[in-house]
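TL;DR need structure tokens for one chain.
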Amino acid sequence: MAKKASGSRYPGLVSLALAGWLACAALFAQPSPTLRGEWTATTEPSRVYRGKWIGQALAGQPNAAHGSWTLSGEGGKAILSGTWSARKAGRQLQGTWSAQDQYGRSVAGTWQAETPELSSLSLEQMLQVSLQRVVSGTFRSGRLRGNWWIRAFSAPPGSG
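>> reply
TL;DR here they are.
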């Protein structure tokens, strides 16, 4: 009787062990620290938007992040508040956002951005860099195009 050529006598056991190891790695992946900061964006002609953001990279996914944000109006009062998510591939960031205004009306959209100077970093690393200095890029959301800047501050323990 001819023996079957195979890389292992127990291919199912190897697959099971690998699946178990991957599940444990995902289970014990440490969540990224929650960061909070301020953002500014400009669009043509000479419009400036400002607000605050909170966010963190997803555990085990350094190129994915999510959080919340506000758009400030006169005197710094929040006039929109909502959530955001982002994914990074190379230099390109893509994301979604949604928010409600003070009257309960909902708005939502998608955005794309580039961070040429930080293209070699993961999204999680880019957020960490924003603790030391302002991080900037360009964005496009629908017909709007412009520039953006973020700066982060470490969140106090228990606030994330």
